[in-house]
Amino acid sequence: MRYTRGQAAFWILSYLVLAALPVFIAYAGSVPDARGFWIEFGVALGFIGLAMMGLQFILTGRFSRIAGTLGLDSMLQFHRQIGLVAFFMILAHPVILILADSQYLAFFDPRENLPRAFALVAVVGALVLLTVTTLWRTALGIPYEWWRVGHGVLALFIVFVGVVHILQVSYYVSELWKQAIWVLATGAAMAMLINTRVIRPWQMSSRPYRVTEVREEWGGSWTLRFEPDGHPGLRFEPGQFGWLVLGESPWSLNQHPFSFSSSAEQTDAIELTIKELGDFTNTIGQTEPGSTAFIEGPFGAFVPDESPTRGMVCIAGGVGITPIMSMLRTLADRSDERPIRLIYGNATRNDILFYEDLEALKSRLNLTIIYVLSRPDEDWDGIEGRLTPEVIGPYLPIGSGDSREYFVCGPEGMMDVVEPYLTERGVPLSDIYAERFQIV
Ligand SMILES: Cc1cc2nc3c(=O)[nH]c(=O)nc-3n(C[C@H](O)[C@H](O)[C@H](O)COP(=O)(O)OP(=O)(O)OC[C@H]3O[C@@H](n4cnc5c(N)ncnc54)[C@H](O)[C@@H]3O)c2cc1C
């Protein structure tokens, strides 16, 4: 489940070609007269921005073939960043056209064409709303689940109005084949949304899981054990994650991503370890054994190399240990002998999730653990501080030809410091695997 540079280059190239496709189509076949650089540029931005908006449905579609290679987490991060680029491109489209020729203001004039003006004003509003609610969702107090529904509806509306606008203006798509491509592409985007939101839950409905154990862990966390009910269950690779729905229906909006914390070699059950953090997770400890659950997955490319040729360095903060715990448990079950160094940061001794299990794993693996506490008790004789470059620096086996894979998972602040520090210290980007728990 790991991607090579070649695969990454292939997907990036495919993305660029698909994003630019509307411009190639516009300039294929019979091409109308060009109208000056700025107008052509503004039109091209609109075409590309809209295509990028449509491609967002692929990025969020949880397609295992793509997500399995690139990692759903990386794709969602890309979706977020590229969404901003698409936002500016689409907004720049009318701005540049109007600045280049004020006659284009007529598109927004209700006296000229009321439905058209209404639709275009609404689409600009939708675009702004989509971006503002995404960037400042938490500050605006919008619950994640409602934001997700609204996000999809707004995106669909923008793509739909955008395509109708292109067909109506018809300057570059007057030929039937060009119109057919736009209609088919819109249909495909909608089909992807229906696949993710309707067909997948329907498929999941025949693959329920039963909660067989709810175990309290250190640091306000709970481990839930799920056993497949009437089906073989899913197989995952250590470090991957799944989307969990608790309850009788897989159609719930309350669907949350959690890393598998159990060994991938354990096939009869799956364990997820969940920290109490918000609306959904705060009540996770009250889950009744025997309840029904649905798990969609596996996803993610935060996975160690299967062949034990190189060692690993894992840097975890708090609940960020969960995917790493799965790696350690799996490697122990596989009697893997590669050297592993774990630098694990928490606030207090009682926050060290899986402490006893980690200590026990030392006898089954070539494992060194460096615990770091930011608020230790007086009797703590370990390392004190946060996972900053000064603290972790001396424990990184960098240099002397000891090339290792680096796995980093923890709070945003830690990730933002540790990832650039590793590259600064000369660790190649291709050897750094990062898992961010905060998607939006
Ligand atoms: C790839 C991945 C793996 C994760 N693995 C673990 C794990 O092993 N253990 C663990 O405790 N946590 C894990 N998380 C984080 C976990 O998904 C969130 O803590 C949880 O969804 C918070 O939900 P809430 O309603 O309790 O909190 P809220 O207070 O509502 O949300 C806190 C934050 O969590 C995120 N979030 C909330 N709801 C969702 C959702 N439905 N889908 C996606 N993100 C959401 C948002 O960024 C939000 O700002 C993981 C997250 C990701 C992306």
Explain what the structure shows.
This protein has three domains: 5-203; 209-299, Elongation Factor Tu (Ef-tu), domain 3; 311-436, Rossmann fold (3-Layer(aba) Sandwich). It has twelve helices and twelve strands. Helices cover 45% and strands 18% of the residues. The strands form two sheets. The chain has a six-stranded antiparallel sheet. A six-stranded parallel sheet has the order 10-9-8-7-11-12, with helices on both faces. The chain is an alpha/beta fold and 440 residues long. It starts with a helix and ends with a strand. The protein binds flavin-adenine dinucleotide. Flavin-adenine dinucleotide binds at residues 73, 138, 144, 241, 255-259, 273-275, 277-281, 319, 322, 435, 437-440.
**Biggest sheet, spatial arrangement of strands:** 4-3-6-1-2-5
List the helices and strands in order: HHHHHHHHEEEEEEEHEHEEHEHE
Averaged pLDDT, please?
Answer: 92
Could you give the count of β-strands? 12
Biggest β-sheet strands, sense, barrel: 6 strands, antiparallel
| Small molecules in complex | flavin-adenine dinucleotide
